[in-house]
From TrEMBL:
Coiled coil: none annotated. The chain crosses the membrane at residues 25-43, 50-71, 83-107, 114-132, 138-157, 164-182. It comes from Paraburkholderia megapolitana. Residues 225-441 form the Histidine kinase domain. This is histidine kinase. PANTHER family: HISTIDINE KINASE (PTHR43047:SF9), TWO-COMPONENT HISTIDINE PROTEIN KINASE (PTHR43047).
Length: 629
């Protein structure tokens, strides 16, 4: 049980408090008991030497008990709570054995009333022990039996009627206080448990309150920054557009104003795309498409994008040569590295930027690292820089200095790739961002990342495409577009139409399907029915593609998880074509591989044309299934 340990510890701590709290009172009671016993035996002391030894021991044990109490008060941390409890039990053994065993003297004295007097004293002591040690089983069992059992045995052994009765009464008393002590202990345990529960509840409430406060603060910051960043270009566009109406403006001024408007629209577009990108990653529709590829190629692609910026600032951009092949998603990795390099360049004024791969002790993989000798990030800022719209030093929220969306995107992408973004940074001395990647299989490495895209030739010619959309104008548009690419197209208004087309012998190479269909049917359902029909007809490797304006539905997430390609509206012709060609190419190579030609298989549902990302804003326009801008 989760709380078991804290409760046992709390019980022990409370026990230590209770046990030791009684010790000073016990100290005086024991001196009183010694005085009483010595005085009743004084005139008729059987075996005086033994008696003296026994009572000297009793006195010493009593003083030792007090010394222990002082030690506990002064250095409570010297022993664990359990240790203090055990030590107290040892004290009980020493302290209670003396008066308990000393009743032997009473039975060897000539005074007949001594056993009775001694027994009365023992019962008094046992009652005291019940009060002080009853909470703890160990301390109770190391004291009460020592006090009462010798007396019971000796009374029974005396073989007289009234002594035997006394022995029985004593035995009854012994059992009774044992039973009481047990329920006493249970009660004590329950009280402590309730206290711990309450404490636990109070602590977790405090933590939750803190988390809620932090979240609310972060949300406030987020909305303040986001609304500012979105409103700023909108405001500018509004003012600029109004000035276009100014009849006194020259045509040169108008052209300039129009340029400004275009720039602001671009900025707005870029910001929207960044936000949408984050939302897509978060909603789970971004697909991870892993392949085996040479890391050096990816480094080269990203390096080429950023070295002009680095060179313009007089920074050296060093890319460590590497020959390893990794198994990962090159498109997502390119975005990650693009963001990290762009930050490295932005936040470094002199020195160098380094990008490379390090094994760092990993056998089946290693780390990709991006280092810079820039301004670094103070420790206190390091936990915040991954929050959306958070920027360390841009209080005026100058859009030219970014929006604070790069690192949140990077962090999520790396999470999506199954790794974790690590940061080491010292203010003023630079930063290192790194994350783990898995090694790939050189034999299965794709021929080349750029070539993979370039090698997509006009594979559309002569392909049969079945389009399912309940909007006739879209069907007409698709038919004309695909027809121009040399495809043979068949349109279907719904699932039934599509199945009919198949029944009439139309064998598609691809099925394009809108997500929201008429009669509350979804494209996913239609595609499943079509795929079933095709499978029954012996066609397995048909490319299917879903087109949607929806972004975060549970069904879309499930499709993404199954690797079913999804394109998000608006779909440009170029993107549609590239996606289709890649899917066909992938299906062809999968077919070739299963028929034993040994061609490299591209894993995942579709290979992306990385061409889209080159030179584009790092977060957008990836042109891959599942994340179309
Ligand atoms: P942006 O760079 O657009 O501001 P990011 O999310 O990429 O947004 O980064 C958030 C903040 O983290 C930046 O404002 C910057 O202060 C800090 N930061 C990111 N990368 C670095 C780096 N390499 N060196 C120093 N600071 C950095």
């Amino acid at each position: 049980m989760m709380r078991a340990d804290p409760i046992q510890r709390a019980v022990d701590e409370d026990l230590v408090g209770v046990l030791y709290a009684q010790d000073p009172i016990a100290f005086f009671s024991h001196w009183f008991s010694i005085a009483v016993l010595v005085s009743i035996y004084w005139h008729n002391m059987p075996s005086p030497q033994l008696f003296a030894a026994c009572f000297t021991f009793y006195g010493i044990a009593n003083c030792a008990g007090l010394a222990m109490w002082v030690w506990n008060r002064r250095q409570p941390g010297a022993l664990t709570p359990r240790g203090w409890i055990r030590l107290h039990a040892l004290r009980s053994v020493l302290l209670y054995s003396a008066p308990g065993l000393a009743i032997w003297f009473a039975f060897h004295s000539r005074q007949a009333e001594l056993p009775l007097l001694h027994t009365v004293l023992l019962v008094t002591l046992a009652a005291g022990v019940f009060m002080s040690n009853g909470f703890d089983r160990l301390n109770f069992t190391t004291s009460v039996p020592l006090l009462l059992l010798p007396a019971i045995v000796l009374h029974i052994g005396s073989h007289t009627f009234d002594r035997t009765i006394l022995a029985i009464v004593l035995a009854f008393f012994f059992c009774a206080i044992n039973v009481y002590a047990i329920s006493y202990r249970r009660l004590f345990h329950r009280v402590v448990e309730a206290r711990v529960d309450q404490q636990y509840l109070a602590e977790s409430l405090a933590v939750q309150k803190h988390v809620a406060e932090e979240a609310s603060l972060a949300k406030t910051r987020f909305f303040a920054a986001a609304s500012h960043d979105l409103r700023q270009p909108l405001h500018a566009i509004g003012l600029l557009a109004a000035s276009l109406n100014d009849p006194t403006a020259t045509s040169e001024q108008r052209t300039k104003t129009a340029d400004h408007i275009v720039n602001n629209v671009d900025a707005l577009n870029q910001l929207f795309n960044q936000v949408l990108d984050l939302a897509r990653i978060e909603s789970g529709v971004t697909q991870v498409i892993r392949m085996h590829f040479r890391l050096s190629e990816l480094f080269e692609r990203v390096g080429n994008q950023y070295w002009p910026q680095a060179a313009a600032k007089g920074l050296a951009l060093r890319i460590a040569p590497t020959s390893i092949v990794i198994h990962d998603d090159p498109v997502l990795l390119e975005r990650v590295l693009g963001n990290l390099l762009s930050n490295a360049v932005r936040y470094t004024e002199e020195g160098a930027i380094w990008m490379g791969f390090r094994r760092a002790g990993r056998r089946m993989g290693g780390f990709i690292e991006v280092r810079d000798s820039g301004i670094g990030i103070a420790q206190a800022e390091q936990e915040h820089i991954f929050e959306e719209f958070y920027q360390v030093a841009n209080p005026q929220r100058d859009a030219r200095q970014g929006h604070g969306l790069g690192l949140p995107t990077v962090k999520r992408l790396i999470g999506l790739l199954g790794s974790e973004l690590q940061l080491r940074s010292v203010a003023g001395r630079g930063s290192v961002f790194r994350f783990a990647v898995e090694l790939g299989d050189p034999v299965r490495a794709v021929a080349g990342l750029s070539d993979a895209a370039a090698a997509v030739v006009l594979t559309a010619q002569g392909r049969h495409v079945l389009c399912i959309d309940d909007d006739p104008s879209i069907l007409a548009g698709l038919a004309s577009l695909l027809g121009r690419w040399g495809c043979i197209v068949r349109g279907a208004r719904d699932e039934r139409d599509a199945l009919e087309a198949l029944a009439t012998g139309f064998v598609p190479d691809a099925v394009l399907c809108d997500y929201q269909l008429a009669n509350h049917r979804t494209g996913a359902q239609a595609l499943a029915a079509v795929r079933d029909a095709l499978r029954r007809g012996g066609r397995e490797n048909v490319v299917t593609l879903l087109i949607t304006g929806d972004m975060a539905s549970v069904e879309l997430q499930a499709l993404a998880a199954q690797g079913i390609p999804v394109l998000h509206k608006p779909v440009t012709p170029a993107r549609l074509r590239r996606t289709l060609e890649l899917l066909w190419q992938q299906a062809d190579s999968a077919r070739a591989a299963t028929s034993g030609s040994g061609a490299g298989i591209v894993q995942g549902s579709a290979v992306d044309t990385m061409a889209d990302t080159v030179g584009a804003a790092p977060s957008i326009q990836l042109g891959r299934p599942g994340q179309l801008a």
